[in-house]
Amino acid sequence: MQLKSFIKDFHWALFFIALLLSVSGLVVIASASSSLNVDYVHKQLIWIGVGILFMFIILVLGYRPFLNLSYVLYAISIALLLLVLITGVVRQGAQRWLHLGFIALQPSEFCKLATILALAHYLGGKKPTQDHRVSFFIASLIVLFPLAFIVKQPDLGTALIFVPIYFCMLFVWGAKLRYLIGTILTGLISMPIFWFMLKEYQKRRLLVFINPNIDPLGSGYSAIQSKIAVGSGMITGKGWQEGTQSQLQFLPERHTDFIFSVIGEEWGFLGAVSIVLLYLIFFWCAVSIAHQTTDVSGRILVVGVVSMIAFQVFVNIGMTIGYMPITGLPLPFISYGGSSIISMFISLGLLLSIHRNRSIF
Q1: What per-residue confidence (pLDDT) applies to 210?
Q2: Distance (Å, whole) CA 177 – CA 73
Q3: Where exactly are the structural domains of the chain?
């Protein structure tokens, strides 16, 4: 009877879309890394298996225990971010990783989820009509602490993810519009100050976003090669392992940050649009869960998870076609990376658990 109930309440569409995206990622990673001497495919397959295991653990335990432990998880994630700044491994000018034996952990990936859980738990226990200013202020602090630590690494791309998470969750909670607008205006006014706080390579990335040709062999190289790759795929693409930009290694980070460029080159416009449609269906299914659940914390949690994944998809795809600055954000469920893929399946487990328990609270 329990098995029948589990099968009935399991959101098969959401799970299979995530699985299809991950399998698509494996295919693209196999092509993008074929000229390298590292077996990224088998490593990614292991991470997917670990992620699915965590997903089912969350599904069995339910999302409520994780909400109840959210402050503890949040504190641990902040401690790990601090540890990264002290003993973290530096790669490509950024100190974002912790070496734990045979694996490298990127705490910022899990800190996003811990912050979403903490914010959902806090806002779910507060009514917008009571102590609104205090609640708004504390919610802002919950987001500000991890954001500041991640900016310090520096990892501006990941830090920016906290912005849509913050606004979307507060909006669904019922934050007063003038508070949200005031926060946006404060941010816009402070932008000149933030500019002087940026590292030189971050400033170059922003300038190159405006005009990649100002440094075609330096900071603008990745943006130019990515647009060439996507454009050369035409309608149906060049075929698997037939992309010149990826196979001849003109395209950097092609199995991680620029994996969508490989999709555009080898699968063409039709393949790229198919991936985007899968994401749109995924978001539609997730938002429908938020509408169905009667638990306020659960609804806010869904919105936080969806805004996190949607922003990453938007920025990653946008940067490959020249509409967003280049960041180190991976494409959810597709890009290579253990921390990223595990955190995505943990997020999926939370969504599936909320769907399963949508009428209990």
Answers
A1: 62
A2: 30
A3: 11-356
